[in-house]
Amino acid sequence: QVQLVESGGGVVQPGGALRLSCAASGFTFSLFDMIWARQAPGKGPEWVSGISNDGATTKYADAVNGRFTISRDNAKKMLYLQMNSLKPEDTALYYCARIRSGWDVFDYRGQGAQVTVSS
């Protein structure tokens, strides 16, 4: 069955950096576009970044553009999100998801990794 497992979350000070990882299994990872999304307490889900199946195309939400970098390693079936210059408003549960259509319709997602940005 399809499984997506995130890791790498934690507590970091403003201006700090974290790298999230997402391990995929149960499907042919290299055939699917993937995204990262987040949900802050009391707020709805927010699309963060997407990457095409071959890694050639990446997209970012305005709120993270220039600070976050999405990447993937198809041989290892891994998805990554490098987050730099973190701000308190980046605090959220981050999850990876497999795209079904477009850039924001997904069919499977992981349970998420908590990122807290606080001094």
Characterize the structure shown.
The structure is a single chain. By secondary structure, the chain is mainly β. It is globular and about 40 Å long. Strands 2, 4, 5, 6, 9, 10 and 11 form a seven-stranded mixed β-sheet that branches. A four-stranded antiparallel β-sheet has the order 1-3-8-7, with no helix packed on it. The model has no long low-confidence stretch (mean pLDDT 97). A hairpin with a 5-residue loop joins strand 4 and strand 5. The chain contains no helices and eleven strands.
Quick overview of this protein structure:
This protein is an all-beta fold. The chain contains no helices and 11 strands.
Radius of gyration: 13 Å
H and E order:
EEEEEEEEEEE
Low-confidence stretches: none
Mean pLDDT: 97
User: What is the tally of helical segments?
Assistant: 0
- Assembly context of the chains: single chain
Q: Determine the N-to-C terminus distance.
A: 40 Å
Number of DSSP strand runs: 11
Look at the helices and sheets and give the structural class: mainly beta
* Binned strand content: over 45%
Biggest pleated sheet? 7 strands, mixed
Helical proportion? under 10%
Task: Choose one word for the global shape.
Answer: globular
Summary tags:
11 strands; 119 residues; four-stranded antiparallel sheet; mainly beta; globular
Write the topology of this structure.
Elements lengths: L2 E5 L2 E3 L5 E8 L8 E6 L5 E7 L6 E3 L7 E6 L4 E6 L8 E10 L3 E5 L3 E5 L2
Parallel strand pairs: 2-11
Antiparallel strand pairs: 1-3, 3-8, 4-5, 4-9, 5-6, 7-8, 9-10, 9-11
